[in-house]
Design brief:
about 120 residues, alpha+beta, Alpha-Beta Plaits, 4 helices, about 40% helix
Length: about 120
């Protein structure tokens, strides 16, 4: 059983007093993803009610597209974490190729991955 896409959820905290800068830099990360990525299907940013946490829902055509994305937004992402965000944690769903594990270890992201147990198949008539 395999998943149709490569899915990731990222969670991070907004540093105290840095919400406006966080929003500006998140916009830059999004711009770079929009301009450069070729295999990104979903890249949605959500902010908690109190503006202290952010969760990003991500889906890619495959793991290679995720790697491409990581390199495409690297500078903007690094700037985000240098001043405005902290506590980067990721959850990865599905089979994780060694290249992705190497990348996450290199970047220093705290991650967990879950292998597919079962999925809803479309009903047949």
């Amino acid at each position: 059983m395999t998943m149709a896409t490569f899915e990731v959820r990222a969670r991070l905290r907004v540093r105290d007093g840095k919400l406006d800068g966080f929003k500006r830099q998140a916009t830059e990360v999004m711009r770079q993803a929009r301009d450069k990525d070729s295999g990104t299907l979903t890249y949605d940013w959500f902010l908690s009610q109190d503006g202290t946490e952010c969760e990003v829902r991500e889906a890619y055509v495959d793991a290679e597209a995720f790697i491409e994305h990581a390199f495409n937004v690297r500078e903007a992402r690094d700037a985000l974490f240098a001043e405005f965000a902290e506590g980067h944690k990721m959850t990865v769903y599905g089979d994780v190729p060694p290249k992705v594990i190497e990348l996450m270890n290199k970047v220093g992201v705290d991650y967990t991955w879950f292998s597919l147990l079962q999925q809803l198949e479309p009903a047949t008539t």
